[in-house]
Protein 1
Amino acid sequence: MNLLLENELNSALVAVFEKNGLDKKFAFVKVSDRSDLSDFQCNGALALAKIAHKNPREIASLIAEELQKIDFIDAVSVDGPGFINIKLKNEFIAQNTDKMAADERLGCGEVDDKHKVVLDYGGPNVAKEMHVGHLRSGVIGESIRRIEKFVGNEVIADVHLGDWGTPMGMILAEIIKTDGNLDKVESYDIAQITEFYKRANIRCKEDETAKEDARKITAELQGGNPQYRKAWQHLRSESIKAIKENYEQLDVNFDLWWGESDAHETCGEIVKIAREKGVSEIDEGAEIIRLEESNKPKPPVIMVKSDGAFGYQLTDIATIKMRYDEFSADEIVYFTDSRQALHFEQVFEVVEKLGIAPNVKLKHIVFGTVNGADGKPFKTRDGGVMNLETLIEMSKDKVRQSLPKAGEVEGYGEKEIEKLTSQIAVAAIKFQDLKNTIVSGYIFELDDFAKFEGKTGPYIQYAIARINSVLRKAKANGINFGKVILQAPEERTLALKLAQIHNVVMRAHNEKEPSIIADYTYNLAQTFSTFYNACSVMNAESAELASSRLTLAKLVRDVLTLMLYLLGIEAPEVMLKAENQG
RNA sequence: GCGCUCCUAGCUCAGCAGGAUAGAGCAACAGCCUUCUAAGCUGUGGGUCGGGCGUUCGAAUCGCCCGGAGCGCGCCA
């Protein structure tokens, strides 16, 4: 059950359209583009007129006349070429607001076709430091995970580690080159492991024989060489430990910690299935599957490389089979940047060809890369990428400057201040990322992740903190929650904005686009701030009005808190301020 | 060369199942703290929506062409 104001309007419109023999496909309203003229508008008359070759204003007038009679509608007008502008009665909006306040889901409905969805995001690699390039996938994925759950779907989130490719052979080769053997591997921590990887990476770029060694070791590792396996286990578990720390700080969560290596056995099965179906062939020593090239040229999928190791596409294909077999997933969604678009096109096509996951919806949500000022994927000045840890610390430092020191405020010792710092810093970072539409990517500006004014996470947290403060004061002054009365324009605007929640969540869900929620959340916080400035609770003209405003304020707080939750952001109870601040 | 994505205010971006004066944030400028937290609010200035052609009563939104940017294109993942 959702509490959209549009529902009643739409069904009223359908009745009017049917009565007049008009195609009810166009019988719907949307939030008005002209809030000065109306709350909602219906553009159906324009579309109908085009088809029927009639005067749009005539059709619009016909509809408007019928709408006038409806009791919850305040005013209807036909404007411009044939827009139908509708204003609702205040009492109707107020009642709806009361219902929202009483509803535990705040007026937001669930999806009709609940299903099971596997989300594949994060995708960190063993032995590689997590950097800002890893931010988007994790942050977006976490938000989608929460949205999916909230709308009623069953969700399984898989981090899907990169733990099975040539980089594994590269790092083992590098360690052997340095130590002469793998005896010391288990004493290495993540910093040392990362160092080895960096050196391996440089070496393999310059030295073809080093690359050759790495490939050989990779193939043997995959083949089951016990010595390599044992060393690799250590690299893997050390990496996971470090990765978990990073994700924990950002509140990015997973149900599964699968990796490419977990698909190894299934990879073998896939190769067999492909052979049986006769879709694979040997070409230049590799076992490949050719793809349709009718619409555009596409390289074939290399299942088994000429050295016997599995190609990375095969692990993704095998993983889909596993998710289908083990979880009977209805939908699998991947979140990676646009550079992997072709990869997933190929993978999905092979899955289809082999029939290993029938009726599973496979989606690749492509997002833009995090770019530097030069428009290319972000690199720091020294050519590296900024690691995630540094970014978080930097943002925290900025937050600390605006907070009181531990002990300065009663009840806020070191632990509490540190928690506040992290909540605000993480909000700044995540919101900064999430407010961008997925596809477009963004320019990485270090300062943006430590900004707390304007369209930022802390701005929204601040609005929530102010409401909490009002609620505390109201309680102390004996003001209770009451029925919503819409008197001031700021109250009305706020109530209308609140009523959009269901549509916002559903759109974000359908489009897999958290920025829709981010945008709305900021909008609502802004609308609230205007209301807050104009409509005092404590000094309201009457007790009824004070109670009404209190209900509105609390509802706003609850909606904002829920929206932040869906973005993966926490809302602190208070936002403290350092002495020297404002 | 082929394919994908993109080009909107000084900067970073929304808007794009065609519609009424193209919106935010930042930056700039002018106001607002004996009144519920000024991480806030109010207001001002700023745009030939990359260029052209077309479809349409109507195009930032759809189609084609051109220009510019980024990414990808068989044994890296």
Note: Chain A has a mean pLDDT of 93.
Protein 2
Amino acid sequence: MTAKPKGARNKRSQGTDVSPASEKGPNSEPPLSLERIVTTAVELLDAHGVDGLKMRQLADRLGSGAMSLYWHVDNKEQVFDLALDSVLKYCGPPQSVQSQDWRGDVIHMLEDWRASMLRHPWSASLLPRRALGPNILGRLELLSKTLSRAGVTDADLNVAIWSLWNYVIGATITRASFDLSDDDRAAAQQRLTGLSEQYPTIERSRLLMDNDWDGAFRKGLDFLLDGLAPKQ
Amino acid sequence: MTAKPKGARNKRSQGTDVSPASEKGPNSEPPLSLERIVTTAVELLDAHGVDGLKMRQLADRLGSGAMSLYWHVDNKEQVFDLALDSVLKYCGPPQSVQSQDWRGDVIHMLEDWRASMLRHPWSASLLPRRALGPNILGRLELLSKTLSRAGVTDADLNVAIWSLWNYVIGATITRASFDLSDDDRAAAQQRLTGLSEQYPTIERSRLLMDNDWDGAFRKGLDFLLDGLAPKQ
DNA sequence: GATCGAATCGTACGCTGTACGAGTAGTCAC
DNA sequence: GTGACTACTCGTACAGCGTACGATTCGATC
């Protein structure tokens, strides 16, 4: 019986052993690994979106057969989980670990979070539905610690975290999906012109076309932080 | 050449003509119609989620062949669009059309919006990615009008609308997906216990388990409204 | 050489959305 | 009646999907 490795699947990644792949010919693919699978999956997701990721295509791109993937990965869902978390690494605020400016630290982390997801527009809509990987948990832990340091009581901590999470997720999902379909939006706005008696206000303000996404995000974030944490 | 009706597809629904179905025997299904398709699709989505809606199953449940659906509907995507919009009808705030309490009106509409989506947990994650139907546009128009009445300037209007939209969407998507997987959350929280040195803060606060979703939603909404619209 | 585990992959299966075109029933003109 | 036209239904078929299964290959160890 040959059982797949489950817990220690990424054995190869953590060791410092010399890769045996280097001994192969120059025109042969390196061996499969979790890392190669995940980075290639991210490439394909960036190129073709969530629905555009196919296991066969992923294998093709890696120079292997489709079923070889399943030695390293349980199923397609796990590919999503790994790709998602891999994209959300955070290196912390630039200057220091124990900055006095907790508000700046929170804003930096959340804006970086949003930016990371917008760089990979498939990631935002995936995030709420998938398992929490170490990078996601790391961000939550950092957020939690920073708010705690800022004086948010334990009783309010969870409410504050989830409010911020909700806001970031919602803003990014909307932004990303509207980004993907500029033509659709223009068409929808155009269609509204024919219905101006039904939707006069949103037609006049050209709601669907002209938006300051970044500014709106920052504005709402400020308001939330004003309310959630005591002023300094 | 037999072309499908495109614009006037729902002819049967708007007329007051007597339904010819009543002349049939009691044990035969009523004829297909957009309405029946949509309401049945909503039932199936409620029961099995987004991935659980299959065209064949939908047709079975309607007592017809799978391909008959395609006379009334272009493709499966349109079924999603119609089901989504059908679930988001809004009848307005209870008391009056021109209430003095604009803040109460906005909160009522947004909390009703969230409640409607939570009643159909598949709807929230669908909303940002799909076309805007008349009910969705109606809500946006109402929100727009109310904020305008409350004194929000034209320049700030779009920013305010999108901030609120983002917040509602994010809160509801998160809530709905966490709702769907209570066991997963418990398991994830349990797993965190084994990693308490890495994630001490969110482990101690039991972030993944114990949350006051409704309270957090209302709190954040209040903060946003405080900032977005002038105090009354 | 024999053995064994790790890793690869060809084949096949069940399921999906839907293109195609045949078939049916009702209506209207003559 | 009869033929034409429209509205609608649906059986069949097809390509593409995730992946179960089992055969195969390769390198290390005894």
Note: Residues 154-180 of chain B form the longest helix (27 residues).
